[in-house]
Amino acid sequence: MLDVHEHRRVLSGVRETKGRQLSSHRHELDEERRAWRRAKDARPAMHRIVLEGERREMQRSRRIHKAMLAQNRWLLALADRLQDRLKKAG
Known about the structure:
- The chain is mainly alpha-helical.
- Helices cover 96% and strands 0% of the residues.
- It has one helix at residues 4-89.
- The radius of gyration is 38 Å and the shape is rod-shaped.
């Protein structure tokens, strides 16, 4: 049977080891939580940046599309006038 002092020393060593392990584990959990929070905070910001980029791209496409429609209308009007001239000349 163990001596009382020996028993306490062994228990103390076990407590110290377990305490260190728990502390290390707690530290790892805290790091995970911090990383998770940063990711959650970063996600909306990144989403907003992507959406703003998409919005700019859509505006650019809309401008190009409007310009092409105007050019098409102009070309159609020109074709109509040429058609009329050909009819008058023919």
